[in-house]
Predict the 3D structure of the following.
Amino acid sequence: MNLYFLKLCWKNIWRNRRRTLITVNAIGLGVMALVFLRNYYDSFHEQVIHNIIRYHSGHLAVAIKNFEKNSSTQLYLKKSPPIVNWLKTQENTRALSERVIFSGLASSARGSTNIMVMGIRPSEESKVTDFANKLIQGTFFSEQKDKSIVLGAKAAETLHAVIGSKIVLLTQGVDGSVGNELFRVEGIFETGSDADKSLAFIDLKEARAILSISDESSHQIAIVLKDEEKLNDFRSSFEALEGKEPNVQMLSWKELQRPVVAMIELDRAVNRMLMFLILGVAALGIANSILMSIMERTKEFGVMLAIGTAKEEVMKMVITETLLLTGVGVLLGNLFGVLVTTFFNQVGFDLRWLTSKDFVIQGAVVQTVSYPIVRFSNSLVVTTVIVILALAVSYFPARQAGRLTPIKALRSH
Amino acid sequence: MNILEFREVSKFYNQEKSGIHDVSFSVKQGEIVALAGPSGSGKTTALNIAAGLDEFCGGEVLLLDRSLQNLLPQQILNLRRNDVGFIFQSYNLFPVLSVLENVEYPLALKGVRFHERIERAKRCIAEVGLEGLEDRMPNELSGGQQQRVAVARALVTEPRIIFADEPTANLDAITSEKLLLLFRELNEKNGTTFIFSSHDPRVLKFADRVIVLADGRLAN
């Protein structure tokens, strides 16, 4: 199709300006909404993933098989130093934290509560998770005192504990013995998540002592990578590492947080469904516009056919008009979608008007405010879908126009 | 040399509406021929068949020495695109295109390059006396001017034969006369054959020859 016919098609779509503007607006609004929504959802999901990583296991966690399912204290790495040393030599390791994890009873003079205790090296843990930055009172083991404990705010409230309060931790050691120890509260953190009522940190050595496990043992080694894209390569290298204990495995955050992955997948599926719904409605608008335009121009098509235009050329013209109409809407929709995303990237898109609280997903807090980022892949997906839908809905009107005979078309009014 | 030949051509629509019956006539290169007759006499049917726009049931039509029933649809299309011009009763210009763009259309169909297309279209517009109105839209022109644009559009591919279905039906007497004089002028200058239909006795006198149809049959 040469420029002349492109110009003719362009002029044809504007012959009923109001109808074209309505259709272009419908396409543009749909595309804009979807481009923004997809950009927003992406940033929201990234925030969820980031927070899950920063409040839980990092990108990867090394543990004995099935520890992630039942958290049994019996499932511990007997010799973790070779693994820790290997991890430290890896270029992609940003930070790691060796952990001893157990459940127990925390008691103070005025109360008691079930609690999950994490034995950590504070300097390591603060590079893997954000708890050290969430203190509302005290410090995160910075006073180098023995037998210190850092508690969540709600647990502290249940125990009526303040900084300096005595807390007794009671649990069962791996050898069946009763392990108990007295700690003093050094810090209280508040994240807004479930961790506030059920998590406490103590020093790694003291946790090992309570559970009666050796100084080389731990339940989990959490790893944060420099480049998440190379996660699979990292795992492959680990799997190839020789001399590991049997049943040691490295799991990614996706395997450790399956409900979160499922939630994100569900979210994306709903988003895709929404996309087809919105663009489907826009496509119906396109179909209506093109059909009306063809019905109004039947005689004109007759003239075209009579003076030597081929049926295929008439069909091509109808399809080109559809694509031009769609193109204008898509262009405007993408432009405004990118502008809206950029605007909210600066000021933040806050869902607080829909929900009064931050979301807690798998124990990690996700704020209501997100800062969407422009992703051209989202524009590309939305554009591709609407163009395919437009082509599909233009096929029948185009075929109808192509089936006209000059005589019948010339006789129409 | 005959440019068009009808040999006992028949066309039936249905029992209520008849077309033409055993119509035979021929048109020579360079003639201006009028198909005359009252409404429903079969003028338009004969014209449409001659131009390859409509099918026929019996007989044979030779257009430019080619038998139409033996031509493939693509060959008929090429014939219409290259050798035949059309002028319609109600002008049928494309309303979204300017005068120049309307006249360009058949050349664009043939893939003629931009500069040549513009030059030829302007020449034709000048030839029909509309120089200076190239950028006007059809709705800015009078009926006579619009029909002249239609003539220019039909002429621009330099066809050997132009079919015009009641070209003066929507024009007043003076404008009709001017249009028919233009046909004559173009015929004398370029040797273009014109076949037009009309039932108006005032316009028939401009033809070299009049073929009269009545009830779908040749009357003279």
